[in-house]
Amino acid sequence: MFYDFRKTPIIDQAGIAERVARFNSRSIKKESKVQALKMALSMIDLTTLEGKDTENKVKQLCYKALLPHSALPQLPKVAAVCVYPNMVATAKRVLNGSMVKVASVATAFPSGQSTREVKIKETTFALDCGADEIDMVISRGEFLKGNYQFVFDEIASIKEICKSYHARLKVILETGELSTLNDVRRASDIAIYAGADFIKTSTGKISVAATMPASLVMLDAIKDYYFKTGIMVGMKPAGGISSAKIALHYLVMLHETLGNAWLNNEWFRFGASSLANDIILQLEKEEKGVYYSKNYISID
Amino acid sequence: MNKKETHFLEYFTEWKYNSALETIEHANLKNQYDLFINGKFVKPSIEKYTNIINPATEDTITCVAEASEKDIEKAIKASKSAYETSWGKMPVKERAKYIFRIARLIQEKAKELAVTETLNVGKPIRNSSNIDVPLAANYFFNYAGWADKLEYAFPNQTPKSIGVVLQAVPWNFPLLMAAGKIAPALATGNTIVLHPSETTPLTALKLAEIIQESGLPDGVVNIVTGTNILNEAFVYHKHLSAISFTGKFKTGQWIQKTLAETDKKFTLELNGKSTHIVLEDAAINEAVESIINGAFINQGGFCCDGSRVFVQETILDEVIHRLKDRMATLIIGNPLDKNTDVGPIHSKSHLKTIEELIKNESSNHENIYRHITTLPKQGLFVNPTLFINSSQAHALSQQELFGPIISIQTFRTIEEVVDKANNIPYGLTMSIWSNNGSRAFGLNSKLKAGVVWINTSHKLDPTSPFGGYKQGSMGKEGGVHGLFPYVKF
């Protein structure tokens, strides 16, 4: 299917903001709130991407992933743990056999400023270590130069490798570095057509992370692709989703844009670190009627 | 390249939202409401009351008085007296204070007013709370500011008040329309007899309570409720200096005829037959959102509802597909539920009118779409309906509907859509959807509509004049223009 990425997508910024405001006006209460909180928990990619990460830090995060709250052992596990390539083997040792996936960043995360060769090697290494998913970054410099073919080819080549390992590819657009929502749409389309299994908003390493308007533009891109082809693509907002309240807003937006089929962690993820504990806090409140001190909820 | 989109999405079966009901008790309704004349609630001269129902349940929630000719005479006399002795003589800064106080009281009682409006009209509580009540307060705030600055509104002229004004408002925005009329009339130094719609008078009566609380001098605003009381004697009354009417087209025409030989001023806001024009370079998702919002949410009860949609043929399939998709996420139900998008129709008779229209038009349209399969068991609900492949010739395209109905027509060129869009006896509001600024502005200047929105719709503000061309309206409301009907020079 031919698609001309040079044609600027039509985005109405004010209209997008109004649609977001309407989603945020939904009142999610009682059973539907508990259901949503549990769903959100199961969609989290617990993440540690710090210079000071060690194997022990990663292991502890994995244990948290397997048992988010020991006082409520029936709560769902999170979707995945996301780490740097050299930590994949450690994570895999703890998580192997469980439902929790191991996701690895790759392709010179977070900047993407490196050669094709290096990126391919890094991706292969992570997959060899047992990563189930790869979170790659697009080359924003090339994108902003208008070199869309480069961006497309890069994604396609990483996807090819992932495919041979039966791993899924998430493509990080870094929407905070793209100047307009038109660019967010364009980058989304390039990633989708190049074979992304997920499109992801951010690396979480710059100040502007996931926003609802950018996420809605991405959801619309996925929707248009589905309408034309029947093929699903997942979506992952990352960074800045620190409270259950915000997560529920995203879930309503997801729900009323893409519908039932996307309401699970195969097609939607939250890239977050402190979100899990706020969800647990809210779930405890729904059950017990009071807010617990944060000391009752384990940190990873 | 136009590949037809055939895949559909499904919503709401995995995750249903619990109801988030607003508390009925907030409405604080009395069992019975009397007429508000000369600063007090007085019994009607003939003890007759009409039941008011909640359209979501069809239960009776209260009853209101039926004004007789005697009561109307009393109300007009009270207005005249107040004009001559208190309000007409009051210093302008003092008037402003009263109007400002009313604005603040509306804000304080926002919840009470919003819940009342929803109970009476069937309007989703989200609309009542977020649009109707705040805008109503804003009308009073805005015109409170104008009270002592009238000479700036009319340069080189000295505006003077005119006297007693009769104002009649319809069922779709009872509180908002009352505010839109009362505020400028008061600001310009006039006194008022307000006649709310016979089915939706409750928020006007709450406004009466607010007016009492504000200390506004007796007789400055009088509120008379009743069925079919706008007769010749009322409208022709010698003490009335002006009439401001928003409502049925036929009634407006009749008022115009009746007043033809008098020197009474009048403002009429009658019909709209609002239109969306979607050009091929529109942001389609946003256009669809706006079309659905206007036509379905608030049950199409806008005079600017945008129920007539022109779509450029190149994007027709995409637009239809997305309209159908968006309809799948509408929640129809109890308007007191904060999650309800589509509430019931406010009265049985109006419901009947809409159902008949749908029945008639269904037989001469080949393509009709509805998403919802079961309506709520109770209440006066209409299933939101999309008439695809409509034409100018269909009655649907010429009449104002006030129901959750959208008709879609296609066009090929700008010239064609200009002719068709203008081809109605009214011209109130239109929306243009296009990414191309110069094309949108060019089109704007050719459309015969009083209000044209570009890439949006239903944006109202007390500072902005609202009114139309041709038979749909005479005179404007809002902004400086809204002061015009209530002054003389």
Give a verbal description of the structure.
The complex is a heterodimer of chains A (300) and B (489). By secondary structure, chain A is α/β, with parallel strands linked by helices. Chain A has 11 helices and 8 strands. Chain A has one domain (13-296): Aldolase class I (TIM Barrel), CATH 3.20.20. Chain A has helices at 13-23, 30-42, 55-66, 88-95, 116-128, 140-145, 148-164, 181-193, 212-229, 244-258, 275-288; strands spanning 44-47, 80-83, 101-106, 133-137, 168-172, 198-200, 234-236, 270-272. An 8-stranded parallel sheet of chain A has the order 7-6-5-4-3-2-1-8. In chain A, α8 links the parallel β5 and β6. The model of chain A has no long low-confidence stretch (mean pLDDT 95). With 489 residues, chain B is of the alpha/beta class. Chain B has 2 domains: 24-270 and 472-488, Aldehyde Dehydrogenase, Chain A, domain 1 (3-Layer(aba) Sandwich); 275-454, Aldehyde Dehydrogenase, Chain A, domain 2 (3-Layer(aba) Sandwich), CATH 3.40.309.10. In chain B, 37% of the residues lie in helices and 18% in strands. In chain B, the strands form 6 sheets. A 7-stranded mixed sheet of chain B has the order 13-14-15-12-11-17-18, with helices on both faces. A 6-stranded mixed sheet of chain B has the order 8-7-6-9-10-20, with helices on both faces. In chain B, strands 1-2 form a two-stranded antiparallel sheet. The model of chain B has no long low-confidence stretch (mean pLDDT 92).
